[in-house]
Design brief:
By secondary structure, the chain is mainly alpha-helical. The protein is built from three helices and no strands.
């Protein structure tokens, strides 16, 4: 069983994508003093941050767009966590 956050905003079409985006946004949240992401060390904003921002926006759009971004996240998952 998948636990979906019930506190998701009302305009969310894909709650799982939104939850994954929030998880990634929480990790890749800021740049350090050196200008790199505090989580992964890549130049800010890192690709994981940009993908999470895109996923957050797309989770509010049509299911077709959300499905595409979900596959993008899954293909990068080993690099993001």
């Amino acid at each position: 069983m998948v636990d979906v956050d019930e506190a998701a905003p009302g305009d969310i079409v894909d709650r799982l994508l939104w939850r994954d985006a929030q998880h990634m946004l929480g990790r890749h949240m800021a740049a350090g003093l050196d200008g790199n992401c505090v989580w992964c060390g890549w130049r800010w904003p890192c690709s994981a941050r940009r993908l999470a921002e895109r996923a957050d926006a797309v989770a509010r759009r049509s299911f077709r767009e959300a499905w595409t971004v979900r596959h993008d996240i899954n293909s990068m998952r080993r690099y993001l966590d």
